Amino acid sequence: MIVGQQKPFDEIWSMVRDFKKVLVYGCNTCVAICHAGGGKEAEILASMLRMKAAQEGVDMQVDSAAIERHCEPEFFEPLDEKVRTYDLVLSPACGVGVNFLADRLAGAIPVYPGINTSFYGGVPEAGFFVELCGGCGNCILHLTGGICPIVRCSKSLMNGPCGGTNNGKCEVSDQTDCAWYLIVERMKKLGTLEKLLEVQPPRDWSTGTHGGPRRVSLEHIRAYEEKEEKNAATEGK
Amino acid sequence: MKSGSNLEKVIASGKMAVTAELGPPMSADPHEVVKKAGILKGFCDAANITDCQTAVVRISSIAAAVIALREGLEPVMQMTCRDRNRIAMQADLLGAAALGLKNCLCIAGDHQKFSAAGKLKGHPGAKNVYDVDTCQLVGIMKKMRDEGLQQGGDKLEVAPKFFIGASWTPMGDPMDFRPYNLKKKVDSGADFIQTQGIYDMDLFRSQMEKARNLGLHERTAILAGIIVPKSAMMLKYMDSSVAGVTVPKPLIDRMNKAKEAAGDDKKKMRELQEQEGIKITVELIQQALEIPGIKGVHIQAIEWETAMEPIVKAAGLYPRPTFDA
Amino acid sequence: MADVAEATERTPVSTIEKPQDIPAEWQPNVLAFACHYCAFAAADLAGVMRLSYPPNVKIIRLPCTGKLDHIHVLRAFERGIDGVFVAG
Amino acid sequence: MSLLSNSTKRGSVLIVGGGIGGMQAALDLADSGFKVHMVQRDPSIGGTMVMLDKTFPTGDCAMCMISPKMVEAGRHLNIDVHTLAEVSSVEGDAGDFRVKVKVAPRYVDADKCTGCGDCEVKCPKKVSSEFDQNLGQRKAVYSLFPQAVPNTRAIDASQCLCLNDPDRKRCRLCEKACKAGAINYADKGKEIELNVGSIILSPGLDRYDARARQELGLGRWQNVVSSIQFERILSASGPYKGEVKRPSDGRHPKKVAWIQCVGSRDNHNANPWCSSVCCMYATKQSIIAKEHDKNIEPTVFYMEMRAFGKDFDKYVERAKKEYGVRYQRAMVSAVREEPGTGDLVMKYAAEDGTLVTENFDMVVLSVGFQPHCDAEQFAKTFGIETNEYLFAKTSPFTPVKTSREGVFVTGIYQGPKDIPETVIQGSAVAGSVMALLAEARGTETVEKELPPEKDVTGEEARIGVFVCHCGTNISSTVNIDEVVNAVKDQPGVAYVTNTIYACAQDNQDMIKQTIKEQNLNRVVIASCTPRTHEKLFQETIREAGLNKYLFDLADIREQCSWCHKGQNEVATKKAIGIVKMSVAKSRLQEPLQSETVGVTPSCLVIGGGIAGMTSALSLADQGFPVYVIEKDNELGGLVKNVHRTLEGLDVQEFLKDRIEAVKEHPKITVHTGVEVKKTDGFVGNFKTLLTDGSTVDHGAVILATGGVEYEPTEYLYGQSPNVVTQRQLEKRIAEGEMPKSGERYVMIQCVGSREEPNQYCSRICCQDAVKNAIAIKERNPGAEVMILYRDVRTYGLREDYYKKARDLGVIFTRYDVDRKPRVEPAGSRVNVRTWDYMLNKELSLDADWLVLSTGLRPHPSTDRVGEMYKVTRNPDGYFLEAHVKLRPVDFPSEGLFVAGLGHAPKNIDETIAQALAASGRAGVVLSHEKLAVSGIIAKHKRELCMSCLSCFRVCPFGSPYIAEDGKISHNEVKCMGCGICAGICPAKAFQVNNFRDDQILAMIDAAAESEPGVVN
Fold first, then answer.
1. Which of A57, D241, D299, D436 could form a disulfide with D326 if both were Cys (CB 3.0 to 4.6 A apart)?
2. How far is A168 from chain B (nearest CA, A)?
3. CATH of region B6-314
4. Chain D neighbors of A127, CB-CB under 8 A
């Protein structure tokens, strides 16, 4: 799931203070699960902003709302007019949601982020989220016993470990396990340790963000639209 | 001869090699490098020029290496995988070769968040690279030297001739995987190896035995790394928080005894500890050199270059061998 | 699903005065959230023993303080309650 | 058990004594279809426990634990409490007893009196309060203690000025003060006849009067107090309001000494038995005193620290380490008062024999129990035999049965014991009675018929508000009319009035009447605390046809008038605020149905040892099918290798009968060599798959997994043939191999117990050692027996056997845990060297036999079974019961019970008692066709839920679960309504009935609108 954390309240306030009518527009899926930007958190944030405004003697109306998901246009429709009556939307949805709504409003009113979207993660226990995938677009987990060195090793080494391990922990912090320590143990248990002896060649990073923004288009669903896009693109040239 | 460097010649001659370490300053003034080169000259076959060690900005390794070369001290330039992608790496290697540098040590490089272990601010917010790792860098240098090809496959008009080095932390965990870790570097083409600081000699002997069983000691020149201890506090610090370094208690006790002997006279306390530090270093060198498969020592007298002379002499490694041009 | 919690018309926000120096006769309006089994029972015992304490506090009984929600506390402050006391 | 042939059995029970034991039995029986008559000598039930401040080892406050049970017993439809009553005669046999009960005059009419206490205020006659152990005072018209049940006042005829005036003219102030007209000086006693099926005796015991030991100075030196007096001193509702003060000058004592075994373990002018609880309550009192006042320095003078119960040793260790309690192993010979200062001078012999005199500010005498002065007559009345000390005579195999069929005993009248054992015996007697009167279950209990419920869904809120005066308790501080006027025009309020006593019968009828006349669909009553009166008023409006959850109680007495006396204007304003909050909540109330769930009337018992078999037999006798699951291939468990009890009874014989009875009983199915594979479901509806493939449907589960003996590795065990365990020794004695004359036996206690990581006492080893020592000496006085002990813990009536062993010449020598005996082989014998504290020298003993008293461990299967039923274990691996003191046989989740060694180490009779208790508790569940689920639970809206598992992870009762469709569902039967799920749920998919977010927010708005009270 996508994991994010609410921005510090002072940072949010400094973004919002000059607006008269603000809507805190929550999203009830991933960011609700990580208690950062759901409908409940939107309500709480709105209440805190109202009180802060009162304390600062700033005349500001702050309302809260929430929809199921901010990454599908149809969910926005029911509140489209209502949203346009505000002079700022503070969206505690993930970065995808903020972009998507900002594109939808196309500059009519500003959309500010309420949280810092961080990573794809697992939830080992209530309220605890750990990063386990970096979305690099070229998965090699079959080589390392299911432990991703790209994201869980601070130096993304393909032929680790480096010299910085400190009794099983990474030099970066003693709370961070050394991925390669885990990989060696896992491969030993799987009985395929010798696989690690092959030197992995330099990676092709272009499948990740280094290769520029990515898109996925499912041909079996939108064959027609793809043709349209191709024609438009060729005419343009 | 792969590179024709002085270090290569010493190793090839079968004599025990001695390398030292030269940390370039955080300044644009080269005289610090010149001064240190002057002190080290004659007491080592080549001196490592660190590449922004602990992710702290210093004169770049290539520049400082060239200065040292001019001063008559053969440098071992270093290249970390942290700061350059494969394009910049290969360009810098060509430049270094063009400037006459022959030895190059490939290391992963301390993570930018490590930043001098808290002593300095460093640049924890910097974007690191790590496009390739140490083994892959060694492979790139070998391909450039032996096949005259870039990593991407394009041809080089003139191939750079490097004596390729890599680092090894024999006692870092997972300990039982460390010999294979070394094998991968040797398979990739490492000509010489410099290990992390060794204090626990028994542990190092058992790791070297495993390396020998893999036949690695014949395929590369392993130099045992020795960090010269200046004080008891330094030994305790290294044992507790330097990765892959464990310091046996008797050594720490010896240093403490030396410290107490000085009563509360600060100056004497420092001197006695430094003398004990040199004595310990010499003993460690002699024990290391007796280990089969060891082809020399890499003595790290961090910010204490003047200690090289007494150490090298006491260890019977003086004078250094010289070869006519 | 898309319910817009309108800003409260009933008490316009700006009437909550900014914290100036406290006038002599000002009295805090305190609200307590108490768990049925321990804090609420303790409040009862205080009464049974006729202990006296300032009357500025009113108690809302909860099955357990685990039931308390952030919005309850924030709502209290927004409505002008001066202090919230949670015991359980 | 002889079953009565023709005469029909009575479906009711007489319980003599209203202490915690009697109450537990009463509630279990009344909740499972039996009519209970409870006869209590005092004006209120409660017994000894209500006098206590806190209890060990958890430090919970006694009153908070027992008062809910008293309120429940006091109000229970099927329990009649007869106070100031005594049984005068008993005729008939098991199943049909005719009992005469003499009830002393109370001089206050129970139907009229509401317990408001106005009479007490006016009564001029001050009397020393027995409840406060004569440290505090009460009036001639009084209630035994503030939380008395029934809280009807009573007049002490011996003290009342009016009652002592033949023509009743003097004083009569209480009559004038009582608005309810409840005072009746002409009240005569009466005699009532009860016809019951069974009698349970739980009269409790008296405390030893320490004045008999003048040398300790109780009654002569003011600062020497009895331990029960010190309990009152510690109690927040005691004479000193919980401040630890010296009776002589009110100063805070610094050095306080406890003297143990006052009146116990002492043959001249005291009692020979050990009262079992004094060591632990002295430790507790010193800890609690230290918590009250940091600079108190507690010292406990003791012979042996008998901390044999669950987690008791840990409690004593904490007392030593965290609270700095000093334990001095010495008996105090005399206590003198230092003239002028009131301090006390004590003389005692230190360990090494030197005489020490030491000053203390205060001395507490840890007095033990002894039977009531009229115990002999009491036993004659009920026709039961007693042992030589006038305790009820019982056998270890039937610990709760007296000598007379149909008459049972529970609590300390059977022998000195602690609260959990008393509660266990309470449920055990309930189990036995259920078995005896099984066919009469439900014949005498009444169900209340209720009118059909009016459907109010969709109606506009029409709230009726009743503001109560509570005599003067509220109206003396809160202006009732002002409250009525302020609430009159609140939105949704259809009718407002005031009542003098809302809880009195006439006012209740008025309320029901008004609901009908005014067509009200919500009721708010402003009076006292919902904790005691909510159920009462809910039932009242239900009787008027209104759903009982359309009700809210505004507490304007305990939380307003009583704590703001004298500030009328401010209290009135606050009362208005409180009532407005209730009205705001009431407006949003909806009728709630409490679902019911069916019950499969059968029980699964895991473990075929003594505990499992006893539970199975008792439940089967109650008529419920029982499935016994035994891992080994035969029944019996650990007791298989025990030959004799301490009292000398044949255990193998008893075990054979028990196994026979279980095998033959038509209702019991035994699965041997089988374990539980998988289990699912909840109370009333468990489904368990066994390893032999069969599945069992059952309504309750009893975990009797038992224990194993510790296999020693120390003291050369296993290396030398001369080193055996107590069990092996017992076997050889039974087979006549031992003892040969001239042989020397050395026994070492606490092997594998009372040391990290097993910091607990295994409770049975001292008994085993003494039993075997006596057996050896009796068979061959020439044999020599020495026991090396740390503390001989032969508690309760077992003390006699410790004395008998000493009389037979067994030598007891103490050793310390940090100077343990050392053992080396010595040819055909074994050499044991130990430090003797008395001689201050090391002893070297060559022993023919070294006998190790090894401890107990939980059975290895405990973890696996615990995992399956989601019941936690304590750090030592034993099952953790729901509540150490008051629910020692239950688990937090309903329908699961524990018995035997799986719970904690215990002797055979205690295991049998706990097994009977488990069958009693299970009987309560299985006796109902349907189990009602409380209305106040969390409701889950699946359409809002995105299964983020936050609730699943925090719910203490495991009610959210992942359903087949992979999404979260909520099992309402397991829900206790705490609302933690609602607090964490990011989608607000959970709401707790009557505590919904909108209701709480409405209350907050109401609280904010009413201005704060002004302090003048």
1. D299
2. 6
3. 3.20.20.220
4. 950
B243 near A CB under 8 A: yes
Average pLDDT over residues B18-36: 94
pTM: 0.69
Which chains are adjacent to chain A, needing at least 3 Cβ pairs under 8 Å? B, C, D
Is D574 touching C (CB cutoff 8 A)?
A: yes
Q: Assign domain D463-591 to its CATH architecture.
A: 3-Layer(aba) Sandwich (3.40)
Cα of A66 to nearest chain D Cα, Å = 10
- Residue C46: CB atoms within 10 A of its CB come to 16
Work out whether strand A128-133 and strand A115-125 pair parallel, antiparallel, or are unpaired: antiparallel
Determine the residue among D941, D944, D947, D950 to mutate to test chain A binding: the one whose Cβ has the most chain A Cβ atoms within 10 Å.
D950
Residue B169: per-residue pLDDT: 94
Check pLDDT > 80 for residue D32: yes
Q: How far apart are CA D866 and CA D879, in angstroms?
A: 7
Q: Among A47, A57, A82, select the one facing C78 at the smallest CB separation.
A: A47
**Class in CATH terms, A2-119:** alpha beta
Q: Any chain C CB within 8 A of the CB of A66?
A: yes
- The helix/strand/coil state of D12 is strand
Residue C6 belongs to a domain = no
Position B118 confidence tier, pLDDT thresholds 50, 70, 90? low
pLDDT at C1: 33
The answer for residues whose C-beta is within 8 angstroms of residue D114's C-beta and 6 or more apart is D180, D470, D471, D501, D503, D504
Contact B172 A161 (CB under 8 A): yes
Percent of chain D with pLDDT over 70: 99
The DSSP string of B62-73 is HHHHHHHHHTT-
Beta-carbon contacts of residue D407 (< 8 Å; ≥ 6 apart)? D94, D198, D199, D200, D201, D382, D383, D384
pLDDT per residue over D429-463, tens digit each?
Answer: 999 999 999 888 888 888 878 888 888 888 899 99
Q: What is the tens place of the pLDDT at every residue in D851-871?
A: 999 999 999 999 999 888 878
Q: Is the pLDDT of residue C26 over 90?
A: no
Which residues of chain A have a CB within 8 Å of the CB of C13? 50, 53-54, 61
CATH architecture of D937-992: 2-Layer Sandwich (3.30)
Q: How confident is the model at residue C8 (pLDDT cuts 50, 70, 90)?
A: very low
The terminus-to-terminus CA distance of chain C in angstroms comes to 33
* Interchain CB distance below 8 Å, A39 and D948: no
In this predicted complex, what is the ipTM?
0.76
Strands B46-49 and D35-40: unpaired
Q: What is the mean pLDDT of residues D94-103?
A: 94
Instruction: Write the DSSP assignment of D35-57 as a string of letters.
Output: EEEEEESSSSS-TTGGG-SB-TT
The nearest alpha carbon in chain D to C54 belongs to: D1015
Residue C65 lies in a domain: yes
**pLDDT over threshold 60, residue C12:** no
Question: B280-306 b/e with 16+ CB inside 10 Å = b?
Answer: bbbebbebbbebebbbbbbbbbeeebe
Contact: D948, A125; criterion CB under 8 Å: no
CATH superfamily placement of domain D1-104+189-205+372-447: FAD/NAD(P)-binding domain (3.50.50.60)
Give the per-residue pLDDT at D7: 55
Question: Does residue D809 surpass a pLDDT of 90?
Answer: yes
Q: Which residue of A has its CA nearest to B118?
A: A172
Report the distance separating Cα D822 and Cα D799, nearest Å: 29
Query: Which residue from B128, B174, B188 is facing A185, i.e. has the nearest CB?
Result: B174
d(CA D637, CA D607): 8
Summarize pLDDT for D154-190 with one digit per residue, the tens: 999 899 999 898 888 889 999 999 988 899 999 998 9
Give the integer Cα–Cα distance in Å for D119 and D140. Answer: 10
